[in-house]
Amino acid sequence: MSSLRIGYGEDIHRLQEGGRFVLAGTEITTAFSPVAHSDGDCYYHALADAILGAIGGEDIGHHFPPEEKKTAGMDSSLIVKKAMELAKEAGFAVVNLDSYILLERPKIGSFIITMKEHVASLLGISASEVAIKAGTNEGLGPIGEGKAVKCVCTVLLERNC
Question: Structural domain of residue 81, as residue ranges?
Answer without folding.
Answer: 4-159
